[in-house]
Write a structure and sequence with these properties.
alpha/beta, Quinone Oxidoreductase, Chain A, domain 1, Rossmann fold, about 30% helix, binds NADP nicotinamide-adenine-dinucleotide phosphate, Crot_CoA_red, oxidoreductase, EC 1.3.1.86, NADP
Length: about 450
Amino acid sequence: MMNEIRDAVLGGVSDPACFAALPVPESYAAVTVHADESDMFDGTPSADKDPRKSLHLDEVPTPEVGPGEALVAVMASAVNYNTVWSAIFEPVPTFAFLRRYGRRDPLARRHDRPYHVLGSDLSGVVLRVGPGVSAWKPGDRVVAHCLSVELERPEGHDDTMLDPEQRIWGFETNFGGLAELALVKANQLMPMPAHLTWEEAACSGLVNSTVYRQLVSRNGAAMKQGDTVLIWGASGGLGSYATQYALRGGATPVCVVSSPEKAELARRAGAELVIDRVAEGFAFWKDEHTPDVAEWRRFGGRIRELTGGDDPDIVFEHPGRDTFGASVFVARRGGTIVTCASTSGFQHSFDNRYLWMHLKRIVGTHFANYHEAWQANRLVARGHIHPTLSRSYHLEQTADAVHDVRRNAHQGKVGVLCLAPQEGLGVRDHETRRRHARAISLYRPGTTS
Ligand code: NAP
C-alpha cells in the first residue's frame, strides 16, 4: 500500500479524488525512541551519549485522523537538534511531554505511547483530512511547520506561541516527520515551494520559521536595515538562515564559525565579516566556574576591527552557556541579545552591569506562530531565502544523520528521504529553480562560487 502512495506521488497524480481513494496502510515505518530505554544513558557523560544506540526504525500503527488534523505521506524530512535532545533523553526524556499531553483529552491520549515517533519537519502530500478541515485536501503538496496549539484559552489568541497548550510537533507530540506517514494539525500545513525538491523543501520549516521570529519579527529582535548582527554558528541550521535574513534585510552579519571550511561557506553565502572562533582561539571560560572577561573584550575588539568600530545591534544567540556572557558584553549600548536555545548548557552567566548600565535587552524567543511560519515559507517560495541542505540520508540511516548533527560534523541542514526514493525529485517550477540554482546548492559539498 505504501508503494501505491509513493507511485501516485511520483507519477504526478494531483486529482484529490485519486488520493482520497488510496487505501491508508495500517502501519508505517518510523524513527522512534522507546520509553523503556529512557534510562539507557544514565551515568554516561553527556558527550558520550550516542543517538545511534537509542534511535530505532520501527513499524508503528497508523493513528486515526481526528478533527482539524491531516495525515501526510512524508516524502522527506530533516534532522533538527530537537531530535538530538530526544535521542539522548536530555534535558528530560520526551515521554514526559507525551504523558502530560495524553492526560489532556481522549484525542490527545493517542500521543501517549511507549514509543515516540520523532521529527519536526516534512514535505509531502496530504492523504486524509479530518472533520472540519477545509483549507487542505488529499493530493495537496505541503510542508509543515512544527507549532501545535489548541487555542481553547484566551492567552494564545494574540500570539499563538503564547497558548498555554503550545507544543512542538514531533518533540512534545507524537507522530513526527521522520517517518513514511505523519499526523499534523491542519493549521501546521503550508504550500510546498514549487521550485524545490522534496528534501530541499523539507529542511526549512523549523529553522526558517524560528529565525524569522527571532531576527525579523516584532516578537523577536525586529531587525532593520543597517543593523549589525552577530550570528553564532553561522553555517549551522539556524545560523545559515540567519545569515541570509541579515543579508537580504540590509543588515551586516558578523558570522562566527569553527573551521576554515565553515568560514569559506559563510563567505560564499555572501558574508564579508567572519570569525573562526577556533582558529582565533576564543574561549570564554577560564574554568567551569570562571568566565574570562579578557576574552569577552578581545572578542568585542575583534568585532569592532571587522565592522570598522560598530558593536552588534543584535546578537543571535543559541549556543548558551559557553557564549552568553560574551554575547551580553559585545552587544551595543541599547542592543538586543535574542536567544532561542542553550546547546552548550542552560545555566547562563553574564555580568549584569553591562546589561543595565548599557540599556541592553535580552529577548527570549521560541519557534514561531503560524503567521510568522507562513511569512518565512513565502520567502522561500519566492526565492528570497534558500534551503541550506548539505546532505541527505535515507530513512533507515537517520541515526547516522542525527549522530553527525550531534557531533557538529554537518553544515547547514541535513535531510532525510522518507518515501522519496532518491534526491532530486518533486520540482514543478523549473524556471524559478534555474534562476536560483547556485543559491540552492550552496551548502552542498563541492559547490564552488
Ligand atoms: P546546528 O545545526 O547544530 O548549528 C548550531 C551551531 O552552533 C553549530 O554549527 C556550531 O557552529 C555552533 N555551536 C555549537 N556549540 C557551540 C559553542 N559551544 N560555542 C559556539 N558555537 C557553538 O543546530 P541548530 O539547528 O542551528 O540549533 C542550534 C540550537 O538551537 C539547538 O540547541 C536547537 O535545539 C536550538 N533550536 C531552538 C529552536 C527554538 O524554537 N527554540 C529552534 C531551532 C533550534 P560552529 O561550531 O561552526 O561555531
